[in-house]
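User: Predict the structure for this protein chain, please.
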Amino acid sequence: MTYQETIDWMFTQLPMYQKIGSQAYKKDLHNTEIFIEYLNHPENKFKSIHVGGTNGKGSTSSMLASILQEAGYKVGLYTSPHLKDYRERIRINGEMISEEYVVNFIASNKAFLSANSLSFFEMTVGLAFDYFATQKVDVAIIEVGLGGQLDSTNIIKPLLSVITNVGYDHMAILGDTLTAIATEKAGIIKERTPVVIGQYTAETKTVFETKAALMNAPIWYASDIKNLSVYPSGLKGNYQVHNQKTVLTAVNCLKAFFTISNQSISAGLLHVQKNTGLAGRWEILSQEPLIVADTAHNKDGLLEVMAQVKQQQYENLYMVLGVVNDKDVDEMLSLLPKSAHYFISTPNVPRGLAVEILADKMKSRQFHFTIASSIPAAFDLAKQKTSSRDMIYVGGSTFVVAEIL
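Assistant: Here is the predicted structure, written as structure tokens:
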């Protein structure tokens, strides 16, 4: 198969959460366990750091990878979802896995993948771990896909676990209380393995303390640590301040295993996008007019981003918006400014919420909006409306940002 045929097979023949949602979620690690056994346990052939949480885990993973890369290490980075190219998920020192490696891996293992009905995510995790082992990385930063306890990545034995925060997202799968969601996230806390918690509430702290005590795992709370240096960052979202504190606390733990200078920390934080390819986090696409794209798509994320939108200087605010059908649209709309004019459409994925449904909800709340035939068409309409003194915000879903980028 060609690379495109291989990717098409992965996307269409096997369930993929990014496309179809909760139907693709498996409630056990059996398939992952038999696959890594079949691959001769590649996850045991490199050091790893496990990063979970509701918001910020992608940024946190990328910052850690960038810092370790600046410190001179060969660093694997596994993240999800991708925005444009599947290979964004698997990188070494910022370079995406080659098309050839993907094709050969799937071809070599296709009989096993088919016979055991592995999901898109399960096979991708196996591919990433095989690649990092083959390429002999010094360390790999592994981002949790969904939840933690039952996530396919949760077969690693990391040097450090990191949980950025806990918020309401994927509640149909993870539970509808912070305690339930935190319990799933805390599933990545391992026996005698240090864990860093970014932000917490009284409710979630109890969960983390209980699990850490059960696992004899030393625990640090980044938000409680005083006098941490604040470094200039290439990531401009205000919410990155929280992520940076989490990263710096993690780095202090990692100094037991790696030589990391303040210069490496500074350079790593400044050059995150260049070093890792991270995109879609308060990404400024234009200054005049100001055009910003951000992948925030749940309550906590949108609260942070909308607060930053309000801080900007503009005459008129336009928003390009689309959502997926497993999100709480009513809650999302309650967080968005009524003063903006919206250009709305259906994201180009099976999970995309029909624009007619979104329009009905916005109409009942007296939003001003224009319906477009696609997300790119919505973006074009917004650009036609703006002057150099206006602002366009693109968001509501990772898929919306992907279509614009």
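The CA atoms of residues 333 and 362 lie 8 Å apart.
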